[in-house]
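Can anyone check this?
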Amino acid sequence: MSFESLLIDDIKRAVNDAMDIAIEAVQKELTEQGHVLTAALRDNIEKVTKLEGTAVISRMFLEDYFQVIETGVPASKIPYTPGGGGGGSSKYIEGLISSFLKRGRGFEEAKRAAFATANRQSSGGMPTRASFRFSRNGRRTKFLSTATKDAMPAMAKAMGRLASYFQDTLDRELRTFSNLKVTA
């Protein structure tokens, strides 16, 4: 294996370590914010690290709905109009009913709670003030931006270890090179 491929492997390892730190921070922040009913967002984070040209790139992949949790939803974007339903079905209401069923409520109680939540969200947006009771840190949005910002020092430290490793490797290689004897 060439010296260059060893360095690339070491860079990938350091970038992977830094991304693992970011993912752990995101998972912790989601837990602290109380987004753990199904834990799908927290538990299904994936990463891909690869060499693209001359750069090692690492990407984090989250469930499609992560942006709703990251930024919240203004009341004007909630797909429900109080008293405006025609008795049909709504994926939004079905989703709310499902979440209340997962909390152990019976169907009729879950249905009432879903419509009460829809009414509240249609006037105040999401998250609702009441949802803050599930949070341990007082936040219900900005899980990704908060976690990655908070993880930056540890991520930088992981990458800094790589710089130290490069210096040690370079010193070792230079010593090896300087000890070579040229024979004619």
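Reply from J.R.: I decoded it. Residues 3-68+137-175 form one domain.
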